[in-house]
Amino acid sequence: MATKRIELKDSGVVFNEELHQYWIDGKELSGITGMLQRQLFPNEFDGVPEDMIVKAAEYGTQVHISIEDFDKNWINDGTQEVADYIEICKNNGLVHECSEYTITDGKNWASNIDKVYRVDDTTFDIGDIKTYGTMTSEKLEKARWQLSIYAYLFELQNKKAKVGRLFIIHLRNKPKKDGTFDHIADLIPISRIPSEICKELLDCDLRGEQFENPYSIPEEIRNQESEIRELIQTKNEVEERLSTLKSKILLEMEMMDVKSWFTDTMRLTRKLPGIRTSFDLQAFKKDHPDIDFEAYMKTSKVAGSLVIAI
Q1: Domain range spanning residue 30?
Q2: 113-124 pLDDT per residue, tens
Q3: Burial per residue of 251-278, b for 16 or more beta-carbon CB atoms within 10 angstroms, e otherwise
């Protein structure tokens, strides 16, 4: 039986763009970004001059308008940001479904999703356009909460629809004092926070309670993030360089038919090519289901470890 194509439901919410207010049946609904600032990011703009906040907002609004004009009307205003957006869509298979799509729970909350992209008849990706100069860990964390709540409300509003990927489309092309441009064009995947946690955050705010963030990181560790990123980047670069050197040395040794080289501080040994044989335990178990292997299995403790992804 063919899957029925889902058409996105109209929220019934009236959005006052000038006042940035959401209304339904005469009741004003709360926005998501304001709630996130109350609950999780109260110090987001501390120490940032008001004029910088205004200028950043104006630039972000203009980029949003340019991209929306392209998506809705196929009008390309010739800006670098629109060119970068087109390239990102092409490279990532993004098929625009709608822009500024309003979602709501119908009672208390509403917000506009920057971009919805259709994946198939029932699945949609959600994207948020950001124009920050620097994508800090706090900005990424806020975007993760924002997009995860959007996904929760999106699926609540469109009962049979599923959200696939969440991501930030990071665009920026602003001139710098030295004459160069601060140019950014990137798609940043975001891992989704479970809907039950998003709902608990929304409910806590409605009750006037402070939400306990299960993903909060101690400040001491957060302050080490830049150093950790730099160390991992350095490690990756060093390993790549070492791999290149080893490949060149191995090639030289093979050409000269040399098995070992020595220096005062180093020994280089060429391992000859061969064939590795291993035992496919899973296949053997499948072929011999009558044999009890437990008496032959060895167990050992494995120490815990930390995986860091950047």
Answers
A1: 14-216
A2: 999 999 999 999
A3: eebeeeeeeeeeeeeeeeebeeeeeeee
